[in-house]
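Data availability (excerpt). The following record was deposited with the supplementary files.
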Amino acid sequence: MLPNRMNLAQATEEHLKRLKANTGVTPNVAARLAFFRSIESDFRYSGNEAKLNGGLILDKITWLGDTAALTELLLKMHYPSLDPKQLQQAWAAHVEDGVASIRNHRSVQYLSISL
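Predicted structure:
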């Protein structure tokens, strides 16, 4: 469903890297948290194609880990007519939306409390 190699917008990656510096949570794990946070908030991808120009290009398994099947299922459930490239855009939009709510935490303790 999703492409094997994926990346995010550069601004989103910067937020994830800053979160890693503050909390030690790696960008791929933080992206998973942000994605599910966005799904829970009822955010919906509007179809606006974003420029995914981030330098952190990882394979799908690294980005999604054990949540890969669930992530793809949720994306297909919410966006049944999108092709794999558009699903990557939707995933990136959800990560960008979700990272806004977790990016300013200064420690793992505060991050875990907010989740």
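Summary of structural features: The helical segments are 10-23, 27-40, 60-64, 68-78, 84-99, 108-114.
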